[in-house]
Amino acid sequence: MKKSKLNKEEILHLAKLSNLTLTNDEIEKYRKQLEETVEYVENLNELDTRKVEPTSQTTNLTDVFFKDGVENKRGLSQNEAMKNAKNKKNDYFVVKRIM
Amino acid sequence: MDLLGKSLLELKQLVADKKISEKEINEYFLKRIKKYNPQLNAYLTVNENSAHLPLAVKDNFCTKGLKTTASSKVLDNFIPPYESTVTERLINNGFSVIGKTNMDAWAHGSSTETSDYGPTKNPWDTNRSPGGSSGGSAAAVSAYLTPAAIGSETAGSIRQPAAWSGVVGLKPTFGRVSRYGVIAMGSSFDCPGPLTTTVTDAAYLLGVIAGKDQFDATSSSIKAADYNQLLKNKNKYTIGISDDYFDGVDEQTINKIEKSIEILKKLGHKIKKITLIHPKYDISIYTILQRAEVSSNLSRYDGIRYGNERNEFGVEAKRRIMLGAYTLSYGYYDAYYKKAQKARTLIVNDMKKAFSEVDFIVAPTAPITALNLGEFEKYPFFGEVMDQLNEAAAVAGTPAINLPVGLDNNNLPVGMQIMGNYFEEEKILNLAYQFEKETDFFGVIKRGIDNYKD
Questions:
Q1: What ipTM was predicted for this assembly?
Q2: Is there a contact between A55 and B81 if contact means CB atoms under 8 Å apart?
Q3: Is B2 within the bounds of a domain?
C-alpha cells in the first residue's frame, strides 16, 4: 500500500464522486479523519496475501439465477412506485435538466 | 394477569390457551411504551393498530404502510410500498409489528448517537448508550417494551447492544436470513436476527425468519434446522479460547467471562486454547470493505423516487461514503479494496481452521460496558474499536450469540459471546440454552425488566 496523505482537492473530488456538498469546515474535518482511518488500515500490509484469492461472498454461493417464467411478485404498480416521490408530473418522476 | 417479563413463547401459549387475548397484550405493551418510551427513545414509530402478538422491528426493515427511516432524515417520510421478507414471515406466522425501533442512522455506529432522531437511552442508566446500531431494539427488549425484537447486524450491531443492554442477541450466518427489504448497509455482511429475553425465543424467531428467499440471491438453500427441537440436547462440546480476545478488555468484564467459562467447564464442556488472527486486522478489513459497500449502497438515495436529497445525510454517513469512494477509486482499488478482500480470505480460513479444532469460540462481546452518551466523540474510530471482538464473525460471515453474564460495579450488564461455525446456529443455541438453564443469566434480564414496573 502506498503511503498517502489526503489533500483538500482529493476530498473535494471524493465529495463530487459521491454527490455530496461539503462546507469548508467539513472539508478539513473529513480530510483529517479519513487520513487517520487510511493510516490505521495500513496494518493490513503486515499480512502476507500474495498467494491468496480475494473473497467477495463468504458462504461460497455461485451462479444464483431467477427461474425463467416465474412470476415476479416484487413488481410495484405505477401508483405504488410513485407514492413516495415528492416531485412528479402526470405520473412521471421529475428530475433536474441533464443537458 | 401479570404479564411483566413473560417471554414471547409464554405469551403465545397464553393466547393459544385463551387465557388472554392478543388485544389485551397489545394494549399492555402500548401502555408501557407510552409510559417509558419518552425517557428511553427506543421507538421512532409506534403502530397503534398492532393486532396480533407484538414484536418490535428495527427501523431499517421495510414495513408496508408503516414509516421506515433507518433513523435518517433522508427517509423522513418514507412509507414502504412493500414488506421485507423478515417482517412478512413474522406477519404470516401470526405476529404484528408494534413499532419501529431507533438505530444509528443507516446502522452506521455502535451507540445510536448517529440517529437523526436523538439517541436511545440505556434502560440500565439513562445517561448511557444502549449500544448500537440495533440499540432501540435492545433497549425495548431490556425494558420490556416488547416481548422480543428484530435487529440487524453488519459487525456487532446485534451482539454489542444486546451486551450493553443485557439481553440475548443472535447474529445468524450470512445468508441464513433474507436481507430482502432491509435497507442495505454492507451487503456482504448484513444479517437480520432476534433480540430476546430467552434463548428459546431466539431459537423460535430464528426458525420463523430463516430460510431461502428467492428475492435475496445470497440467502442460503441449506435447510433451516428445527432450532427449538434441538435446544434440549445435553451435548458436550469443545470450546476455544483465544487470549487475543481478552487483550485490552476491562478487568471486570474479564472476571465475569472467566467465571462463565468455569460454569461451562462444570457443565462438562472442554476448554481449549486456540490462536486466531488478531482482531486489529479485522478492524481494517471490515472498515475498507464496509465503507466501499456503503458508498455503493447509499448512492441510490437521490431524492427523486423517494426520500429527501443527499444534503440530508448526517456526518457519519458522509464520512463513510467518501472513504468508500476513496478505496474503490482508480489507483487505490488494488491497494485497499482488493487487499482487504484477500485478507478477508485469511479470516475465513482462520475461522474454518479454528472450527475444525473446536465447536465454539467464547469471548467477551465488547471490551467495556456501556459508555456515557457523548463520550463517543472523544474516541476517533470509535465504533470499530468497540466492535473489534465482533468483527471476525462478521468478516467471515459466521454466526454468534450474546448472553448476559452479570453486572459490573456500575450495575451495567456484561456480555459474553459464543461464536460458531457456518450454519451451526442450532449448536450455538444449544450451548446457550445449557448456560441459561444453569445460570438464568445471573438474574440480569429479570432485574432489567423489574427496573421498569407496570
A1: 0.93
A2: no
A3: no
